[in-house]
Structure formats: C-alpha cells, structure tokens
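Task 17 of the worksheet. Students: predict the tertiary structure of the chain below and write it out as structure tokens. Keep your answer in the requested format; marks are given for formatting as well as content.
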Amino acid sequence: MGFIDTILTPFKWVMSWLLYIFHELFSIIGLDPDSGWTWALSIVFVTVVVRAALIPLFTRQIRAQRAMQALQPELKKLQAKYKGKKDQLSQQAMLAEQRALFKKNNTGMFSSCLPLLVQMPFFFSLYRVLFTASKASDNGESIAALSAARVRSFDNSSIFSAKLSDTFLGQFNGSGGVNAAVLVVSVVMILAMTASQFFTQRHLMTKNMSPAAQQGPFAQQQKLMLYVLPLVFGIGGINFPIGLLIYWTATNVWTLGQQMWVIRHNPTPGSLAEKELNIRRAAKGLPPVGKTKEAAAKEAEEAKKLEEQKGQRQQPQRKNRRKK
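Model answer:
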C-alpha cells in the first residue's frame, strides 16, 4: 500500500460504508440489488450526505468571498502604491501588506477553493473504490466496507449497457474490444460534469460579484476557475469510472442549487443579485436589504421632495420699464 492509499484509507471506509448503506436501503425497499440504477442512485445519495456535511464550510466560503470583494478597493490602493516597483524589497513589502489585509478581514486569495480542496480526499477515495472494483471482483476480494459479493454486484452492474466501473480510456487499453455504450455514456456524463461546473462558476461571477470585485486579483482568480477547472476535469474524466462521473456531476448540481438559494436570499452587497432581490422586495412592499421600513420611507419622501423642487419652474421677474 502506497503513501497516498494510506492517507485515503479512512476516507475509503467512509465512502464505501455510505455506498453500502444506501445500496442496502434501496434493495430493502424493492429495487434490484444488482441493477446499475440502484448503484447509481446510491452514489447520488452518498453525494447528498457528503455535501450536506460540508454546508458549514460552504457558508464560510461565501463569507470569505464577500470579505474578498469588500477588500477590492483596498487591494487596488495597495497595487497603486507599489506600481512600477519591481525590486525584491518592494514586492516583499507589498505581499506582507496584502497578507496582513487578508488576515485582518479573515479571508484569503484561495478561500473560495476551500470546499473543493476538502472534497478531494472523498473524491479520490471513491475513485479508488470504483476504479479497483473490476480487479477486486476478478480476485474475489472486498474493498473496505464492501464485501466481495457487493464488489462483484457493482462490477457487473450497468446503465444503458455501460458498466459503472468502466472508463472511456479503458476501452482502448484492453483487449476485449470497444464497447460503444461505454463511450457514449462516458462522453455524455463528462459533458454534463464540465457544463455544470462551468455554469456554477459563471453564475457566481455574473450574479454575486459587485462591480469593484469584477476587477483585480480576485476577478482573475474567479476567471481562472471558470475556464481551467472544467477543462481539467473534462480531460481527466476520460479516465474516471462512470460511477465517479455520476458522483461529480451530482455534486456539481448540488453546489449550483445551494449557491442559487444562498445568492437569491442573501446576495453580496452591490451585486446584480442584490438589485434583483430589492426589486422583488419592492414589489411586496418591503424595504431594500439592510434598511428598515422607516428609513426607506424617509429616503423615499426626501427623494420625492427633491424631485418636486427640481420640477418647479422659477418664474422670471419682469424688469421695470423706464417711463417715457
């Protein structure tokens, strides 16, 4: 057992145990225990459990992103301060001030990546469980919490004639010929996985970022995630078992739904989502976000008076004509 496998061992037990629990549950309620759809549904519910456990982390991520957006004016001033100074001492001083600013506001450049990083051990452990299913099935071996019989059941299960343990790339590495169903299902799942990841990030950038945050280092980081991550997972997806593609697509859909709910009800100040929320609140007779009814009514009254004053025409005074 290698170093990575040793680190992933507890995560493999957690993921395989959850997979076993849901598979048994669906089998008890009448689903075919050897059906690929039963195993696929089990993978989806494992995703729900893992993502539900990460909700506090997601909340922390949203707070960190807001703090980062609020810091954009300060970061711009810092960049202007050291503009044109390329010497090592100046660069070190700028980084030190930047770190102090992040620490003071309890955020950082890669705060938005934290949930993704925390998910990686679960992702790779499930990858190891599903990827080794075929070999373990042939040898009659168990995988963590999955008995040899359950491993064999999973390895033989399929959806649309494509086994959940098969990979796109594996169709060209073996000697058993190419299964067109595996290629089609893999491509469809890879496209669903990358598209959902791209749309999730794009939704965050267009709906929940203030105009100031759409410029500077934070915006560059978000753009990097927008294009690079779907590309990385899309390329890597050709070697993911179909069961793992189902897991990652399901977690992307969960992320999108959770993000849409949070942004709709608690948007970042100054963002498009906040403007849309205030429009909905105004239609219901409610004050804008962060204002009481009394304060909103007072502002509306002052604005009305100001408009009336502007609308009043000043009558020109007649000049006295000289008497002849």
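Marker's comment: The longest strand covers residues 158-159. The chain has a mean pLDDT of 83.
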